[in-house]
TrEMBL record:
PANTHER family: TEKTIN, TEKTIN-1. It comes from Cepphus grylle (Black guillemot). It is found in: Cytoplasm, Cytoskeleton, Cilium axoneme; Cytoplasm, Cytoskeleton, Flagellum axoneme. Microtubule inner protein component of sperm flagellar doublet microtubules. Residues 34-83, 261-288, 347-381 form a coiled coil. GO terms for biological process: cilium assembly; cilium movement involved in cell motility. Its main location: cytoplasm. This is Tektin. The lineage of its organism: Eukaryota, Metazoa, Chordata, Craniata, Vertebrata.
């Protein structure tokens, strides 16, 4: 207990001096360290501020550059989209022209086939594989070839329209993404350190797996532009091809149509000339028939006129055959009567030409019937060619579409 109440030890004055000096030295040292830290902190703050401002300024520039890049490609895409849309619209009008041209081929083909069918109704020798039929067959082949060509071209046009629309869709999707990206970067460009809605984002630094490189980004839009340009050029070439096909096919059809019409006109002239000749021959035969009928009547009258004289001569001879005895003399009268009978009989026999004349009359009748039938054949042919076929063909017009 006595120890607890013992007085604390006393220090030597030198210890006291040393302690004071140490406190001063320690304080000065701490102050120096603090001042250095304050200076370093100020320098660091200034450096960080400058770096932050520089970095933010650089980011702002990068955002602006990115916006310019997006705007550039957006403009490129817009231009290509406008071009491909316009080209598709024009190609659609060409498709309509093809469809109208294809539809217009059906009537001429139908008429050509009807003409061929009608001409099968020609009769007799007129059922000939003439130039008209050859050209009609060729016309049908030309029209069928044109139809096949137009159908193939129409299929090609439909496919090109599909490809144009596919390119248009890709451009629109790209443009939609570019518009969204530009809106986002516009928003980012508008943000400042004092913007009210800025906030911390925990996952801001997380890189998603669908990020692409700038090169890939450029290539993507460039490919879309190139594809659109390629399809536009293909479409332009196809339109030129369609123009040529429509012009050439219309020219070919008109040329063949005129060739067939010329063949029809020539053939109708030939048939009319043949019919006129037949009618001339018929008139000659009818005249000859009338003459032969008169000849037969004259022959019959001549034969009838000889019946009296021959009867008289034969009666006289019969009577003189009854002369008695020596009076039955072959005298001059007997001789002359005998000659008379023989002469008249011979003359009558010479007029056997009646049978020949009647045979000729029958032949003339057969010839008349044959000529009338042949004229009817020609009239039938003319009716088919001139009325049935040519009137149908006159309604056909080959137009340029």
């Amino acid at each position: 207990m006595a120890r607890l109440l013992q007085a604390p030890p006393k220090f030597h004055p030198s210890d006291w001096d040393i302690a004071n000096k140490m406190q001063c030295a320690s304080t000065e040292s701490q102050k120096s360290r603090s001042e250095r830290m304050i200076a370093e902190s100020r320098r660091l703050r200034d450096e960080i501020e400058k770096t932050t401002q520089k970095t933010q300024s650089d980011v702002n520039k990068k955002i602006e550059q990115r916006r310019d890049e997006i705007k550039f490609w957006k403009q490129e895409l817009d231009n290509k989209l406008e071009q491909i849309v316009h080209e598709t619209e024009v190609l659609l009008t060409f498709k309509t022209r093809l469809e109208k041209s294809l539809e217009s081929c059906k009537e001429p083909l139908d008429i050509a086939q009807k003409c061929l069918l009608n001409r099968q109704r020609r009769a007799g020798i007129d059922l000939v594989h003439d130039e008209v039929e050859q050209e009609l067959v060729k016309e049908a082949e030309v029209l069928q070839g044109v139809i096949a060509l137009l159908e193939r071209t129409l299929e090609q046009t439909n496919e090109q329209i599909r490809l144009n629309r596919s390119a248009k869709y890709n451009l629109e999707m790209d443009l939609k993404d570019k518009f969204t990206a530009l809106m986002i970067d516009d928003y980012c460009a508008s943000l400042t350190n004092n913007t009210p809605d800025i906030r911390y984002a925990d996952n801001a630094l997380k890189i998603e797996g669908n990020f692409v490189s700038p090169e890939d980004w450029i290539d993507f839009s460039n490919i879309n532009v190139e594809k659109a340009e390629k399809q536009r050029n293909n479409s332009l070439a196809l339109r030129a091809l369609i123009d040529g096909i429509l012009s050439q096919t219309a020219s070919d059809m008109r040329k063949q149509r005129e060739t067939v019409n010329v063949a029809f006109r020539n053939r109708m002239k030939e048939v009319k000339d043949a019919k006129n000749k037949l009618e001339t021959l018929l008139a000659m035969v009818m005249d000859e028939t009338a003459s032969q009928e008169k000849n037969i009547a004259a022959l019959k009258k001549a034969i009838a006129d000889k019946e009296g004289p021959v009867k008289v001569a034969q009666t006289r001879l019969e009577a003189r055959n009854h002369r008695p005895n020596v009076e039955l003399c072959y005298d001059t009268v007997q001789y002359r009567l005998t000659n008379e009978v023989q002469e008249i009989t011979k003359n009558i026999q010479r007029q056997d030409t009646l049978a020949q004349a009647e045979t000729e009359l029958k032949a003339l009748s057969r010839r008349q019937l044959s000529l009338e039938e042949e004229i009817q054949v020609k009239e039938n042919t003319l009716y088919i060619d001139e009325v049935l076929c040519m009137q149908m063909r006159e309604s056909v017009s080959i137009n340029n579409f």
